[in-house]
Write a structure and sequence with these properties.
The chain has 264 residues and is an alpha+beta fold. Helices cover 22% and strands 33% of the residues. It is globular.
Length: 264
Amino acid sequence: MQRLHLTVLVFIASLATLQAAEPLRLRVLSYNIHHAAGVDRQLDVERIARVILSVKPDLVALQEVDQNAPRTNSIDQPAELSRLTKMPIVFGANIPLQGGHYGNAVLSRFPITRYENHLLPNIDAGEQRGFIEADLSIPGSKTPLLLLATHFDFRPDERERIASAKMINELAAKHPDRPALLAGDLNATPESQTLQTLGRHWTVANEEPLATVPVNDPNLQIDFVLFRPQDRWKAVEVRVLDESVASDHRAILAVLELLPFAAP
C-alpha cells in the first residue's frame, strides 16, 4: 500500500512538472483607439470595448486614451474600458488635456503587480510621449512578465522616435533574460531606423509587414507587438483586425507562446 501511495505521488509530481514546462499562450492586442472617436465621427467607448473583446485578449496596449476630458464628454475612459471588458487597467497620463489627461493604458487578465509611467524624450517641443512599464504575474513563472506599452512621436523627423527606442532598449538591457513584450503605435514602418534600433534588443512578432493604417485601406504597418529574448517566444499567429470604423487605426493581435526556460 505504501509503495502504491509513493507511486501515485511520483506520478502527480511528474505531471505537475510536465504541466509547468508547457508553453504559456498569450493573446496580445495593440490598439490606438483615437480617444474612441470613430471614422464615422461617433464617440463610442462601448464600440471600442466590443472590438477588444472580439478577440479575447489576455493583454491589451491602448494608445490615445482620454481621461475626464471635455472633448470626450468628461468620461474616464480607462475606468469605463475596464468596466466594459471586465479587465483591470492601468493608465499612464502623458499630457494634461482640458482639465483631464491623455495617454496610454494597459488592460490585463493577469495581476499587474507594479507599474510606472515614463515620459519619453521630447525633441523640439513636440507632443509629450510616454510608455507604461508593467510587471505582470503570470501562471507558472516566478519572474513577472515585463510589458511596455507606448506611443511614439508622429512627425516626419525620426530623431525623437530613435531616442525613444534607445531609452526603451536601455531599460530592457537591465533585464537581459527576463521575458518581455513591447506593444504600441510606433509611428514608424518596419524598414525605419526606429525599428532597426529596437531590433537590437527586440523581435517583431510578424515576419512580414501587416498594414494597420490608414484604417479604410491599410498600406503601412506602424502598430506592433515585439518580444524578447527571442529564444523564449514563439509567434503562433499575428493578424490585423478587420474592424475599420471604431478608430483611425486597425488593431493588431499577436498570439504568442512563452516557452519554458531551458536550463543549461
